[in-house]
Design a protein that fits this description.
Blueprint (H helix, E strand, L loop, with lengths): L5 H12 L5 E6 L5 H15 L3 E6 L8 E5 L2 E4 L7 H9 L15 H9 L4 E6 L7 H14 L3 E6 L5 H6 L7 E4 L3 E4 L4 H9 L8 H9 L3 H11 L6 H5 L4 H17 L1 H5 L1 H9 L4 H14 L2 H11 L5 H17 L1
Parallel strand pairs: 1-2, 4-6, 5-6
Antiparallel strand pairs: 1-3, 3-4, 5-7, 7-8
Helix pairs in contact: 1-3, 3-5, 4-7, 9-11, 11-14, 13-14, 14-16, 15-16
Amino acid sequence: MYELNKEEKELIEIWNSNQKENINTKYIASGLKEDESIENFLAILTQSASNLIIQKEKKGTNRLPEILITDNIKYSAIPLSNELKPFLKALSFNNPDNNPGSRVEFSQQLKANLEKIDIPVRLTLFAAQACPHCPIVVEDMIDIANECKNIELQIIDPTMFTEEATANSVMSVPCLILDDDFRWTGSVSMEEVTDVLANRDSSTLKASNLRRILEDGKASWLTEQMIEKNMIFPEFIKLVLHEIWSVRLGAMVVIEELAEVNIKLANQLCPLLWEKFSGAAEDVKGDIFYALGEAGNIEDKNLIEKELITIDSADLKEAAIDAIDTINLRS
């Protein structure tokens, strides 16, 4: 069981006294051995912070245990020592009226950058208790994540989750990683980070980024981006072929919208789909047929008819026939 030192206890008590209403947050277990350590920390924390209410949830889809501060800010760490102050500040975001001093005034450039971030992004920040520089970076990143809900921020203690640190090639802290594409080590400028976030080329987004966009209900945004750039994003095909049906369903929505607005562009998907067809699982093949029906032309119709001769599955035959009918209606 953890014990708070005098400074930590005083800091928590002062924070608690500033809360006019209860602060509600969640802890999501992971099934890892570290769950117990974090739960012990939270038990000690709530003993000193009577206004903090933590709801525990059973293991979800998360790899690591998470203290869910807000919907887009989470800790996989025990934020004591140098990390306690920014952690308590983050908790205050649940109800800013409790602690007006937690509000931050951003520069005009920073505000402009944050307003331009219109797609979900994931920032992973590795920070450790003993690091003297980490609290500044942690506080800066939670401030911008609190301001822009399109930013998902996860703070991880690499000394606690060494495998996660190794998998991300983290050699020193603080280390900030953006969607596996960019990283900053040491001092981090909020302006520089948000400038990268605001000006990324959407066509270079990875499948994991595109999936989050769809899961956030922004299929139309993705359609508009591909139309604007007049290209099918290279990683999009992975969503159409994804093993999880709900992911493929989101991709189908994009294909439908794309075909309605720009059928020639949508048709660029078809050669890519045929390339993967033979090696796909049967349920995926059914969705490929659907996509071909939405985006295909006469040539694709002829290929579907040839494929239909060899199909034994009744469901797959029905999908192929539906695709042919859809192309016929459009021709």
